[in-house]
Amino acid sequence: MVSALRRAPLIRVCLAYFTSGFNAAALDYEADGSTNNGIFQINSRRWCSNLTPNVPNVCQMYCSDLLNPNLKDTVICAMKITQEPRGLGYWEAWRHHCQGKDLTEWVDGCDF
Protein backbone atom coordinates (compact mmCIF):
# COMPACT_ATOMS: atom_id res chain seq x y z
CA MET A 1 0.00 0.00 0.00
CA VAL A 2 1.25 3.50 -0.86
CA SER A 3 1.62 5.83 2.13
CA ALA A 4 -0.44 9.02 2.28
CA LEU A 5 2.75 11.10 2.09
CA ARG A 6 3.74 9.42 -1.15
CA ARG A 7 0.19 9.31 -2.57
CA ALA A 8 -0.32 13.11 -2.72
CA PRO A 9 2.45 13.70 -5.32
CA LEU A 10 1.16 10.72 -7.32
CA ILE A 11 -2.28 12.27 -7.48
CA ARG A 12 -0.95 15.67 -8.55
CA VAL A 13 1.34 14.23 -11.22
CA CYS A 14 -1.43 12.12 -12.75
CA LEU A 15 -3.91 15.00 -12.62
CA ALA A 16 -1.44 17.48 -14.15
CA TYR A 17 -0.62 15.11 -16.99
CA PHE A 18 -4.22 14.35 -17.94
CA THR A 19 -5.58 17.89 -17.53
CA SER A 20 -2.86 19.99 -19.16
CA GLY A 21 -0.01 17.76 -20.29
CA PHE A 22 2.10 19.44 -17.55
CA ASN A 23 1.55 22.86 -19.16
CA ALA A 24 1.42 25.49 -16.39
CA ALA A 25 0.20 28.12 -18.88
CA ALA A 26 -2.61 25.99 -20.34
CA LEU A 27 -5.80 27.96 -20.97
CA ASP A 28 -8.96 26.39 -22.34
CA TYR A 29 -12.23 28.16 -23.13
CA GLU A 30 -15.54 26.45 -22.39
CA ALA A 31 -18.75 27.00 -24.39
CA ASP A 32 -20.33 28.81 -21.42
CA GLY A 33 -17.56 31.45 -21.47
CA SER A 34 -15.68 30.08 -18.46
CA THR A 35 -12.02 29.16 -18.64
CA ASN A 36 -9.94 26.23 -17.43
CA ASN A 37 -6.65 27.57 -16.12
CA GLY A 38 -3.14 26.30 -15.54
CA ILE A 39 -1.56 22.94 -14.96
CA PHE A 40 -4.66 21.55 -13.18
CA GLN A 41 -7.16 23.33 -15.49
CA ILE A 42 -9.03 25.00 -12.63
CA ASN A 43 -12.32 26.41 -13.86
CA SER A 44 -13.43 30.03 -13.48
CA ARG A 45 -17.11 29.19 -12.86
CA ARG A 46 -16.40 28.52 -9.19
CA TRP A 47 -12.75 28.54 -8.23
CA CYS A 48 -11.08 31.72 -9.53
CA SER A 49 -12.02 35.14 -10.86
CA ASN A 50 -11.99 36.33 -14.46
CA LEU A 51 -13.63 39.54 -13.21
CA THR A 52 -17.05 38.05 -13.92
CA PRO A 53 -19.62 39.34 -11.41
CA ASN A 54 -21.37 36.90 -9.06
CA VAL A 55 -18.80 34.11 -9.37
CA PRO A 56 -17.93 32.36 -6.08
CA ASN A 57 -14.08 32.57 -6.45
CA VAL A 58 -13.53 29.94 -3.75
CA CYS A 59 -9.74 30.15 -4.14
CA GLN A 60 -9.78 33.95 -3.72
CA MET A 61 -7.45 34.60 -6.65
CA TYR A 62 -7.49 35.70 -10.24
CA CYS A 63 -7.55 32.93 -12.81
CA SER A 64 -4.46 34.48 -14.41
CA ASP A 65 -2.58 33.69 -11.17
CA LEU A 66 -3.04 30.01 -12.04
CA LEU A 67 -1.03 30.39 -15.27
CA ASN A 68 2.21 31.16 -13.48
CA PRO A 69 5.10 28.64 -13.77
CA ASN A 70 5.55 29.12 -10.01
CA LEU A 71 2.88 26.63 -8.98
CA LYS A 72 2.38 27.83 -5.40
CA ASP A 73 -0.99 29.54 -6.00
CA THR A 74 -2.17 26.70 -8.22
CA VAL A 75 -1.34 24.06 -5.61
CA ILE A 76 -3.02 26.10 -2.87
CA CYS A 77 -6.18 26.41 -4.97
CA ALA A 78 -6.13 22.71 -5.90
CA MET A 79 -5.81 21.80 -2.22
CA LYS A 80 -8.87 23.97 -1.44
CA ILE A 81 -10.81 22.18 -4.18
CA THR A 82 -9.90 18.77 -2.76
CA GLN A 83 -11.31 19.87 0.61
CA GLU A 84 -14.72 20.46 -0.97
CA PRO A 85 -17.40 17.71 -0.82
CA ARG A 86 -16.61 16.25 -4.28
CA GLY A 87 -12.86 16.58 -3.76
CA LEU A 88 -10.87 15.27 -6.70
CA GLY A 89 -14.17 14.29 -8.32
CA TYR A 90 -14.47 17.86 -9.61
CA TRP A 91 -11.88 16.90 -12.22
CA GLU A 92 -13.18 14.71 -15.04
CA ALA A 93 -9.57 13.75 -15.81
CA TRP A 94 -9.19 12.38 -12.28
CA ARG A 95 -12.35 10.30 -12.52
CA HIS A 96 -11.45 8.84 -15.93
CA HIS A 97 -7.67 8.43 -15.77
CA CYS A 98 -6.37 8.45 -12.18
CA GLN A 99 -9.02 7.35 -9.69
CA GLY A 100 -8.62 3.75 -8.59
CA LYS A 101 -5.50 3.28 -10.72
CA ASP A 102 -2.02 2.25 -9.61
CA LEU A 103 -0.23 5.58 -9.82
CA THR A 104 3.19 4.45 -8.61
CA GLU A 105 4.59 4.32 -12.15
CA TRP A 106 4.30 8.13 -12.31
CA VAL A 107 7.09 8.55 -9.78
CA ASP A 108 9.24 5.45 -10.27
CA GLY A 109 12.80 6.46 -9.51
CA CYS A 110 11.79 9.56 -7.53
CA ASP A 111 12.96 9.87 -3.94
CA PHE A 112 10.37 11.37 -1.58
From TrEMBL:
Signal peptide location: 1-24
Recorded GO MF terms: lysozyme activity
Main location: membrane
All residue ranges annotated as the Glycosyl hydrolases family 22 (GH22) domain in the record: 59-77
GO cellular component terms listed in the entry, alphabetical order: acrosomal membrane
Coiled coil: none
Compartments in which it is found: Cytoplasmic vesicle, Secretory vesicle, Acrosome membrane
Highest taxon in the source lineage: Eukaryota
Family designation: Belongs to the glycosyl hydrolase 22 family.
The protein's assembly and partners: Interacts with ASTL.
Purpose of the protein: Sperm surface membrane protein that may be involved in sperm-egg plasma membrane adhesion and fusion during fertilization. It could be a potential receptor for the egg oligosaccharide residue N-acetylglucosamine, which is present in the extracellular matrix over the egg plasma membrane. The processed form has no detectable bacteriolytic activity in vitro.
Protein name: Sperm acrosome membrane-associated protein 3
Gene, per the UniProt record: SPACA3
